[in-house]
Design a protein that fits this description.
Length: 118
């Protein structure tokens, strides 16, 4: 059974940091592209960061470049999102996503809430 379980969300003050984790199980983690999305109320879900399969090249939304870092640990089947210098506009539900064109599958986690407020 495939599972993506996010953790690490919470309430943080502007300028603070959080690290989100997504633990995957039930599929070949290293062969999947892993992504973090976020969605705020009334807004479209947007891609925040992505890390490729195998080699692990990364991409970031312009709004988070220089502040967020995506990484993964294949041995632990875990992808991380380190979020620094958080801003109120980063407030959203953050979702972990896994995708493979070979297996023709896409999986989603249930989300973890990040709230940036003073």
């Amino acid at each position: 059974q495939v599972q993506l379980v996010e953790s690490g969300g919470g309430l943080v003050q502007p300028g603070g940091s959080l690290r989100l984790s997504c633990v995957a199980s039930g599929f070949t983690f290293s062969s999947y592209t892993m992504k973090w999305y976020r969605q705020a109320p009334g807004k479209e879900r947007e891609l925040v960061a992505a890390i490729g399969s195998y080699g692990g090249g990364t991409n970031y939304a312009d709004s988070v470049k220089g502040r967020f870092t995506i990484s993964k640990d294949n041995a632990k089947n875990t992808v991380y999102l380190q979020m620094n210098t958080l801003k109120p506009e980063d407030t959203a539900a953050y979702y972990c996503n896994a995708a493979s064109s070979y297996y023709r599958r896409t999986y989603w986690g249930q989300g973890t809430q990040v709230t940036v407020s003073s």
